[in-house]
C-alpha cells in the first residue's frame, strides 16, 4: 500500500467528520469538516470494485497541509469504504509532499477550457484534403487502434474503451466524429458529458497524417457540434509534455484555467 494508513500526518489534526454526499450520477463528494467548517473536499469517482479516482480537490493551495488533507481522505476511504486502489488528480505542487508520504507520482496534466462560440469557431473551418470526409464515431467503430503507433497503441486503446463504454460519462453523439479516407479512419474525436460538462475524452490522428490539419479539423467538428447543440463550454485535460496538442488547443481558444495537475496513486493493496 502506497500511503500509510496507520501513521497520521503531523501537518493536520484529525478531521472530525468525513461525509459522502451525492455529486453527479454515481459520483460522490467527500466533505471533511472540522470544528463546524469545511476544510477539504474532493469528488470520488468509482472505477470498479475497491477502486476510485479522486478529482476536484479543494483547497487548491500550495501548502503541505493541503496535501496532508488528501492523505487523510484516502485513509478514510480505505478504512471505511474498502478502497484498495486510489488514484488522485491533485495540484502538482502537492507532489513532493505526497511522494514523501508514499504516493507514486504518475502523469502531469494541464486542465483547459473553452467558451463555445459557434460563429467564432466557424472562422477556423477549412476544406478537408481531397478524398477525406467526416463520418460518425460510435461505440462499435473498429479501426481506432490504427490511429496510434505501436508504442502508444495499448494506452490509446484503453482510453478509447473507457470513453466509448461510458466510463468517462455518456457520449455526446453530435460532438463525436471521424475523418475517413480510403475506407480507413485517419482521425477521431470523442466527447463525453463529465458531470454534465462536455469533456474531450480522446482525440487522435494517425501518425502518417499528422501535420496535415486533420486533428484540428476533427476537433473543430466536435466543438461545432457541441455549440450547435446548445452547450456553452467544453473542457479537456492534456498531458503536460504534449506540446503539439497544447498548441492545437490554444489555437482554437482553449485556455488553462486551473493550476497544473498531477495524477498520483495514493493507495494500492
Report on this model:
- Strand 8 (177-181) and strand 9 form a beta hairpin.
- Strands 1, 2, 3, 4, 5, 6, 11, 12 and 13 form a nine-stranded mixed β-sheet that branches. Strands 7-8-9-10 form a four-stranded antiparallel β-sheet, sandwiched between helices.
- It folds into two domains: 17-109 and 260-268, Gcn5-related N-acetyltransferase (GNAT) (Aminopeptidase), CATH 3.40.630.30; 117-231, Aminopeptidase.
- It has six helices and 13 strands.
- It has helices spanning 64-81, 95-100, 118-122, 150-164, 214-228, 243-251; strands spanning 17-24, 27-34, 37-46, 51-58, 85-91, 104-115, 133-136, 177-181, 184-194, 197-205, 233-239, 255-256, 261-268.
Keywords:
269 residues; Aminopeptidase; 2 domains; nine-stranded mixed β-sheet; 13 strands
What is the CATH topology descriptor of the largest domain?
Aminopeptidase
CATH class group of the largest domain: Alpha Beta
User: Can you give the helix content as a percent range?
Assistant: 25-40%
The number of domains = 2
Order of helices and strands: EEEEHEHEHEHEEEHEHEE
In total, the number of strands is 13
Structural class: alpha+beta
Which parts are unreliable, with pLDDT below 50 for 5 consecutive residues or more?
A: none
Architecture per CATH nomenclature, i.e. the level-2 architecture of the largest domain: 3-Layer(aba) Sandwich
Number of helices: 6
Strand content: 35-45%
Give the rounded overall mean pLDDT: 92
Shape type? elongated
- CATH homologous superfamily placement of the largest domain: Gcn5-related N-acetyltransferase (GNAT)
How is the main sheet built?
9 strands, mixed
Amino acid at each position: 500500500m502506497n500511503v500509510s494508513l496507520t501513521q497520521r500526518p503531523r501537518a493536520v489534526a484529525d478531521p472530525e467528520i468525513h461525509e459522502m454526499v451525492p455529486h453527479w450520477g454515481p459520483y460522490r463528494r467527500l466533505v471533511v469538516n472540522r470544528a463546524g467548517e469545511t476544510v477539504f473536499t474532493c469528488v470520488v469517482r468509482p472505477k470498479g470494485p475497491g477502486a476510485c479516482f479522486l478529482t476536484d480537490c479543494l483547497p487548491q493551495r500550495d501548502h503541505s497541509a493541503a496535501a496532508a488533507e488528501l492523505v487523510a481522505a484516502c485513509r478514510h476511504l480505505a478504512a471505511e469504504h474498502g478502497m484498495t486502489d486510489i488514484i488522485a488528480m491533485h495540484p502538482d505542487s502537492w507532489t513532493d509532499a505526497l511522494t514523501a508520504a508514499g504516493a507514486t507520482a504518475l502523469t502531469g496534466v494541464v486542465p483547459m477550457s473553452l467558451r463555445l462560440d459557434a460563429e467564432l469557431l466557424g472562422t477556423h473551418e477549412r476544406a478537408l484534403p481531397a478524398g477525406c470526409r467526416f463520418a460518425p464515431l460510435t461505440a462499435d467503430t473498429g479501426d481506432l487502434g490504427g490511429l496510434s503507433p505501436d508504442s502508444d497503441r495499448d494506452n490509446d486503446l484503453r482510453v478509447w474503451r473507457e470513453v466509448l463504454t461510458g466510463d468517462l460519462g455518456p457520449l455526446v453523439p453530435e460532438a463525436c466524429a471521424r475523418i475517413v479516407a480510403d475506407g480507413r479512419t485517419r482521425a477521431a474525436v470523442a466527447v463525453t458529458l463529465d458531470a454534465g460538462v462536455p469533456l474531450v475524452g480522446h482525440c487522435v490522428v494517425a501518425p502518417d497524417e499528422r501535420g496535415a490539419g486533420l486533428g484540428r479539423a476533427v476537433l473543430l467538428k466536435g466543438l461545432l457540434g457541441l455549440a450547435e447543440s446548445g452547450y456553452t463550454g467544453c473542457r479537456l485535460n492534456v498531458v503536460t509534455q504534449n506540446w503539439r496538442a497544447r498548441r492545437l488547443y490554444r489555437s482554437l481558444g482553449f485556455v488553462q484555467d486551473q493550476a497544473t495537475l498531477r495524477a498520483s496513486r495514493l493507495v494500492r493493496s
